[in-house]
Structures are given as C-alpha cells and as structure tokens.
C-alpha cells in the first residue's frame, strides 16, 4: 500500500467541492488548491505575471500592478486561442507548485488536489482515488446567482464551458451527492475520510 494517498477532487462549478475540501482538511488531509495556486503564480513580481503582461499587454494590469482578472477575463472570454495561450502560461506553473507540495507531504498523509477542470485536462489517471461532487443543475444555477452574483446567462455559460456530470462520474471512483443539506454532504465526506484512511494503513 502507498505511504501517501493521492486523491483528486473535482466537480462542476457551484457543486459544493469547496465544502468537501474544507471538511477533508478538518479531518487532517493536506489540501492542494489549484485555484489558489493559479492566483499565486501570477502575483506581483512573479515570472508568471510578467509573461501574462508580455502576452496580453498592460491593459490586464491594475493600478496596484496586480493582475486585473476582470480585464483579463474580458480578453479571453469566447476566445479559445487566447484562453489556450493563458493556460500555457498558468497550468505548467500550477503543476510545478503542486508537485512541490506533494513532495513535501509526510508519510501517512492523504493529499487532496482540488482541481476544477481535472477531467477536462485529462489528469484523472494520476490519482489513487478520484472524488467527484455532484449537485443538480438548477441548484448550481441558484447558488451562482445568490452566492456569486451571476445572472443566469453567465452562470449557464460557465457551466457549459465545463464537461458534463456524466463524464465526470464516469471517471470517478467516488461520487458525493450534494443535492441535500450541508450536514448530509459532511456525513458523506466523513464516511469517505474513514475509507481513505484505511487505504494507507
């Protein structure tokens, strides 16, 4: 058995993936958050930010010299070529940072990589266990509107840019159903944690 268990965690936007990640962290999992790393690799003073500016121009930088994510989003929205150029800058740096964190994990750890586009980027085969969080489409649309301030068309656009629940579930070892309450999701996550711990003893 592996001395470190590598777990991939994914799910569609507003599925409740972050709640699962937080619960696993409370149990003692080491969380590697791809979104957080994606922000860190383009912080002020990084090579990542310099390369983004070289590629997309000074208009994507705010007055405080940090990346203006709204401006950058406007540049790459509905432009697959621009999005691909941005991903070519961001993704390799995120994966390098994640690898450093994995390598630093002590023996006996459960390392959970929280990656929104895990299936879309073909990374499912590098994990011991792949966990997918699902929630009904209408519930996800409601959350995006109420919790993130998106109008319905923007929310639907975000969802359509990701793969389907069926494709994610086909790749999954474990599917968590977040159609109920937070307490019910926590209970599923607690059972998952117990099972994950048995795999490294």
UniProtKB/TrEMBL annotation:
InterPro entries in the cross-refs: Depp_CoAkinase, P-loop_NTPase
Residues annotated for ATP binding in this entry: 14-19
EC nos: 2.7.1.24
Signal peptide: none
GO BP term, example: coenzyme A biosynthetic process
Cellular component, GO annotation: cytoplasm
SUPFAM superfamilies in the cross-refs: P-loop containing nucleoside triphosphate hydrolases
Matching Pfam families: CoaE
Annotated region described as Disordered, given as residue ranges: 142-171
Pathway this chain belongs to: Cofactor biosynthesis; coenzyme A biosynthesis; CoA from (R)-pantothenate: step 5/5
Keyword list, A-Z: ATP-binding, Coenzyme A biosynthesis, Cytoplasm, Kinase, Nucleotide-binding, Transferase
Chief location bin: cytoplasm
CDD domains: DPCK
Record's compositionally biased regions (Basic and acidic residues): 142-157
Reaction catalysed by this enzyme: 3'-dephospho-CoA + ATP = ADP + CoA + H(+)
PROSITE patterns: DPCK (PS51219)
Protein family according to the UniProt entry: Belongs to the CoaE family.
Xref: HAMAP family: Dephospho_CoA_kinase
Protein name: Dephospho-CoA kinase
Record organism: Nesterenkonia salmonea
């Amino acid at each position: 058995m592996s001395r470190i268990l590598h777990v991939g965690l994914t799910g569609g936007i507003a599925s409740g993936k972050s709640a699962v990640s937080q619960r696993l962290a409370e149990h003692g999992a080491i969380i590697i958050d791809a979104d957080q790393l994606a922000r860190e690799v383009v912080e002020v003073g990084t090579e990542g930010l310099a390369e983004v500016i070289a590629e997309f121009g000074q208009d994507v930088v705010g007055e405080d010299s940090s990346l203006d994510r709204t401006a950058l989003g406007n540049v790459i929205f509905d432009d697959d070529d621009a999005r691909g150029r941005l991903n070519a800058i961001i993704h390799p740096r995120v994966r390098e940072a994640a690898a450093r964190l994995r390598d630093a994990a002590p023996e006996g750890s459960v390392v959970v990589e929280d990656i929104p586009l895990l299936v879309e980027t073909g990374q499912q085969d590098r994990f011991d266990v792949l966990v997918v969080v699902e929630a009904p489409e209408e519930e996800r649309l409601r959350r995006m509107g109420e919790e993130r301030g998106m109008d319905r068309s923007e929310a639907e656009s975000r969802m359509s840019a990701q793969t389907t629940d069926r494709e994610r579930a086909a790749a999954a070892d474990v599917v968590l159903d977040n159609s109920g309450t937070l307490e019910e999701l926590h209970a599923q996550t607690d059972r998952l944690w117990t099972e994950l711990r048995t795999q490294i003893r």
